[in-house]
Specification:
By secondary structure, the protein is an alpha+beta fold. Helix content is 14%, strand content 33%.
């Protein structure tokens, strides 16, 4: 027959194991949610819905993919996306990086001839995951692009320590022979339903015309807006109408993950 002391010690050990297990479960659940990587996203505009797949295989960071360079190494543009860039075109797509899924905005093309290229876009983006962040704020230096996240204004790249928030206003401006863009990391989070993107291009932007363009303002326009998929397909979006993007495909809402 076990002594009272031995029984008490055994019970204490059992209780300790149960408590430790109970405390470990939420941490495990958080880890599983954090590693969530949907393999498709639904992009909806009005009654139209298209399904896109994230680019790449998760082996490199989105910073390495985008490869944003400033002088003396570059000209304030993305060099990693040169093969994807299109003249007079604004793109959105999802990137599967080593740090998770990111929403990428990419505008225009580097290296267009003088007096052409360049543009302005004002974007209102809402519904962003609260635990996500702006990983890349292209052209974030004084008096150029403007980023306002949950009413916080980022004046320059270096002051953007906390780049989080569920709403962001971006005012992109870029000169001839440049591209522009941004990257928001966190689309694998459970902390959002859908992201709404309202883009105002060209003369609908409050930054039009930009005083550093060469030639007439009419030569510096975005003419097309597309969503890109890893399959190689691109889908033309209607300029002037908001879109939403959410994990899943274009099946009925009740069957989406």
């Amino acid at each position: 027959m076990a002594s009272p002391l031995r029984t008490a010690v055994a019970l204490a050990l059992v209780v300790a194991v149960l408590v430790a297990t109970a405390l470990a479960v939420p941490s495990l659940a958080r880890e599983e949610r954090g590693s969530n990587r949907p393999d498709s996203f639904a992009v909806t505009q009005g009654e139209r819905c298209v399904t896109i797949q994230p680019l790449d295989n998760g082996t490199r960071s989105v910073e390495s993919f985008y490869d944003y360079r400033v002088p003396p190494d570059g000209n304030y543009v993305s060099y990693g996306t040169l093969e994807l860039q299109r003249s007079e075109t604004s793109q959105l797509f999802v990137y599967n990086g080593s740090d998770g899924l990111s929403l990428v905005f990419l505008h225009d093309r580097l290296g267009e001839r003088s007096a052409f290229g360049g543009g302005v876009i004002t974007a209102e983006i809402s519904g962003l995951p609260r635990d996500g962040r702006w990983a890349i704020m292209d052209d974030k230096y004084v008096k150029i692009d403007l980023y306002i996240t949950d009413s916080q204004l980022f004046e320059v790249q270096e002051d953007a320590i906390d780049r989080t928030g569920t709403r962001t206003r971006i005012e992109w401006v870029w000169k001839d022979n440049r591209s522009d863009g941004a990257v928001f990391r966190g689309l694998g989070s459970d902390g959002y339903d859908e992201i709404t993107i309202d883009m105002r291009f060209n003369d609908r932007s409050n930054r039009y015309p930009y005083d550093e363009w060469s030639g007439a303002p009419e030569r510096h326009r975005i003419e097309e807006w597309i969503a890109r998929s890893a399959t190689g397909r691109t889908y033309r979006l209607e300029m002037g109408r908001p879109v939403t993007i959410e994990p899943g495909d274009c099946s009925p809402a009740e069957s989406r993950p």
